Amino acid sequence: MNRRILTLMTALVPIVVFGVLLAVVTVPFVSLGPGPTFNTLGEVDGKQVVAINGIDTHPTSGHLNMTTVAQRDGLTLGQALTLWVSGREQLVPRDLVFPPDKSREDVEKDQDADFKNSEDAAEYAALGYLKYPDAVRVAKVNDPGPSAGKLQAGDAIAAVDGKPVANLAEFTGLMKDTKPGQEIAIDYRRKNAPAGTARITLGASPDRDSGLLGVSVLDAPWAPFSIDFNLANVGGPSAGLMFSLAVIDKLTTGDLNGSKFIAGTGTINEEGKVGPIGGITHKMLAAQEAGASVFLVPADNCDEAKSMREDRMELVKVDTLAGAVDSLHTLTSGGRPPSC
């Protein structure tokens, strides 16, 4: 064989091997980057992102966008290097996103549960801000269980055997005096439906002497209309703030955004406290590229947010739902709200 050809082939071997490694070998990293944004005042797949039924709502316009972080798993070495060089993606050890003691399915279930909890908290926080009164709300009905088919999640329990209950303590006190096998009458209020009475034969539980109703309940604001959040394939708790703002915008006059393109993020609890989230810089980049001029930042994320501050977006610091609403009103009137 010609020595020149042999030399060339010898030089090509490591290049070919490296190319194969780039294309085939996977790396133990997950990339995090800007994900899609969703206008909580708009529609996705023909459904309103925040749908309120059973009460007249006020027309809304403009944008109150929630933001997300995109995850890519199963990266090859070549893909990882390409994403890293782009500067738009962050590579993190896979174990930080998918812990070794949990399957991917378990992690996704946890994220879905966090998202559902954020929807519930967003509703409670918004109704509380709007001064709807607390009630003993049914959060979950066990199926199978004594109340399956008789009570529904979202019902407000008004009385037990004719005795009114105004809060969880009163309800729990009455239930402690019951026995397994006893039939009781639960007066309830139901969203978008008439009030009713359910007669329920209580079950038994090994950890209590009293009867088992088979529901989870909590004290939370209640309204006679329904609020549904229609976003699929989104996990985690960070949409709570923007969901609450959309509910308030639809149930009050005027536009909270004041014709500005508002985006943001933040967890929220039942009392309206806004909490920090992960991936703030990725969400800011997604919002900026979508056209946002204002970004609502949880107060505890401000330092990180300032690390990539862009003049094209005003960073508004928020720590409560009420504070976020006040800040939007301030923007609408031409003032300067608290900033990062």
Outline the fold blueprint.
Elements: H1 3-24, E1 29-39, E2 43-44, E3 47-48, E4 50-53, E5 63-72, H2 77-86, E6 90-93, H3 94-97, H4 104-129, E7 134-141, E8 156-160, E9 163-164, H5 168-175, E10 183-189, E11 196-201, E12 215-221, E13 226-229, H6 240-251, E14 261-264, E15 267-268, E16 274-275, H7 280-290, E17 294-298, H8 302-306, E18 314-318, H9 321-332
Parallel strand pairs: 5-14, 14-17, 17-18
Antiparallel strand pairs: 1-5, 1-6, 2-3, 4-13, 7-8, 7-12, 8-9, 8-10, 10-11, 15-16
Taking the sheet with the most strands, its summary is: 6 strands, mixed
Count the E strands: 18
Coarse morphology: globular
Q: Measured on Cα atoms, how large is the radius of gyration? A: 26 Å
Class from secondary-structure proportions? alpha+beta
H/E element order? HEEEEEHEHHEEEHEEEEHEEEHEHEH
The unreliable regions are 16-23
Mean pLDDT across all residues, rounded? 89
- Oligomerization category of the chains in this entry: single chain
Span of the ends, CA to CA? 70 Å
Percent strand equals 25-35%
**Continuous helix count:** 9
Helix content: 25-40%
Side by side, the strands of the main sheet go 6-1-5-14-17-18
Protein name: endopeptidase La
Domain PDZ: 112-168
Keywords: Hydrolase, Protease, Serine protease
Organism: Mycobacterium pinniadriaticum
